[in-house]
């Protein structure tokens, strides 16, 4: 089968690799219909996250079950399914508590020795705990498939950030970051009833999507100027709930200083220097909470799925570029150069 591999910084290839196959009785094999490139994949692409030459990559996909192991009972051949960005057994103590990303037997797609989502098929460990069935008729609806694909990561991650920040009816929410996760956090905050949503971003195409998703205000400034702008919009008080969806020192510093006294920050940006932006003295003095981390999207899919299926929320606009599997290297280049927001892969 064909799959995307990474060999060195900026060296992505689509190559022939061994076919995905059931190895354990709890496995399933999923034929991929849709996958995508995540902003976090760019850290490997740029060489900021180490990978072995030839390692698979990609952690967001949906598709059709082709084969199941003898102990799999929750899905069967022919089912349309979506996979969260980590597999989990669904039965360990962490999974029962809803923290599926800490599963005792879990793992991340594209880890050494495992298939990545950017390929023709994927072996899925612990299929019963991992995969979520979708209506079969969705397979014929390209728009709906795009929306459903966000359940594998960015929609659930945005939801996790909004929950961690304390988005709620009547609250003012500020979202730092105009990538796909930040935009989905805007959508999630709106869904959770936020009264005012301030999107921080400077790219008009992206902030237009933010407004479409429910943002009431846009702040294009960065750093101290952004803090001043948000403070001005909120009568000097700041936002009740702040989402940090970038992971840099500047973005975290901004998030801390636009939070209202007694507010909270939900952080889901993969940290790359953001720890230096945490002003603990300021947070202590102003009673600001910090919550977040790796989003347990498998836990959130059953809650979010009905709203995607009935159109209550439509996260599909985060995909602004589509490539086929052979075009994945160009998709990485487009996202790295910021000529694409998020690339969808049709297989």
Largest sheet: 7 strands, mixed
Shape type:
globular
Query: Radius of gyration, rounded?
Result: 20 Å
CATH architecture descriptor name of the largest domain: Alpha-Beta Complex
Residue share in helix? 25-40%
Number of helices: 12
Distance between the termini: 12 Å
Description of the structure:
This protein is of the alpha/beta class. It has 2 domains: 203 residues, Alpha-Beta Complex (Quinone Oxidoreductase, Chain A, domain 1); 138 residues, Rossmann fold. 30% of the residues lie in helices and 25% in strands. The chain has 12 helices and 18 strands. The strands form 4 sheets. Strands 3, 5, 6, 9, 10, 17 and 18 form a 7-stranded mixed β-sheet that branches. A 6-stranded parallel β-sheet has the order 13-12-11-14-15-16, sandwiched between helices. The chain has a 3-stranded antiparallel β-sheet with strand order 2-1-4, with helices on one face. β15, α10 and β16 form a beta-alpha-beta unit. α6 packs parallel to α7. The protein is globular. The chain starts with a strand and ends with a strand.
Architecture blueprint of SSEs:
Elements: E1 2-8, E2 11-16, E3 28-36, H1 41-45, E4 55-56, E5 61-68, E6 80-83, E7 86-87, H2 93-96, E8 107-108, E9 121-124, H3 127-130, E10 132-134, H4 142-149, H5 154-165, E11 172-176, H6 180-191, E12 196-200, H7 204-213, E13 217-219, H8 223-233, E14 239-244, H9 249-258, E15 259-267, H10 280-285, E16 289-292, H11 297-309, E17 321-324, H12 328-336, E18 343-346
Parallel strand pairs: 11-12, 11-14, 12-13, 14-15, 15-16, 17-18
Antiparallel strand pairs: 1-2, 1-4, 3-5, 3-9, 3-18, 5-6, 6-10, 7-8
Helix pairs in contact: 5-6, 5-11, 6-7, 8-9
């Amino acid at each position: 089968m064909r799959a995307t591999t990474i060999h060195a910084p900026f060296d992505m290839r689509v190559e022939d690799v061994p076919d995905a196959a059931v190895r354990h009785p709890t496995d399933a094999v999923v034929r991929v219909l849709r996958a995508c490139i995540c902003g976090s994949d760019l850290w490997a692409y740029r060489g900021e996250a180490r990978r072995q030459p030839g390692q698979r990559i990609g952690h967001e996909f949906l598709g059709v079950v082709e084969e199941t192991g003898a102990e799999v009972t929750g899905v069967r051949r022919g089912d349309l399914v979506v996979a969260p960005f980590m597999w989990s057994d669904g039965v360990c103590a962490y999974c029962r508590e809803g923290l599926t990303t800490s599963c005792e037997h879990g793992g991340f797609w594209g880890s050494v020795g495992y298939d990545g989502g950017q390929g023709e098929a994927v072996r899925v460990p612990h299929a019963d705990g991992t995969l979520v069935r979708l209506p079969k008729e969705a397979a014929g609806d390209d728009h709906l498939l795009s929306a459903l694909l966000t359940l594998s990561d960015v929609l659930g991650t945005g939801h996790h950030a909004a929950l961690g920040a304390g988005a709620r009816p009547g609250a003012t929410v500020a979202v730092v970051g105009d990538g796909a996760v930040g935009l989905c956090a805007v959508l999630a905050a709106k869904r959770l009833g936020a009264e005012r949503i301030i999107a921080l971003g400077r790219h008009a195409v992206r902030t237009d999507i933010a407004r479409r998703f429910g943002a009431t205000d846009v702040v294009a400034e960065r750093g101290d100027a952004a803090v001043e702008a948000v403070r001005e919009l909120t009568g000097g008080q700041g936002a009740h709930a702040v989402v940090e969806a970038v992971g840099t020192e500047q973005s975290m510093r901004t998030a801390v200083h636009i939070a209202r006294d007694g507010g909270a920050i939900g952080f889901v940006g993969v940290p790359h220097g953001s720890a230096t932006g945490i002003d603990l003295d300021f947070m202590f003095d102003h009673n600001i909470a910090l919550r977040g981390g790796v989003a347990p999207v498998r836990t959130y899919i059953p809650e979010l799925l009905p709203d995607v299926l009935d159109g209550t929320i439509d996260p599909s606009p985060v995909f602004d570029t589509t490539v086929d599997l052979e075009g994945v290297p160009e998709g990485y280049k487009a996202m790295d150069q910021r000529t694409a927001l998020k690339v969808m892969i049709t297989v």
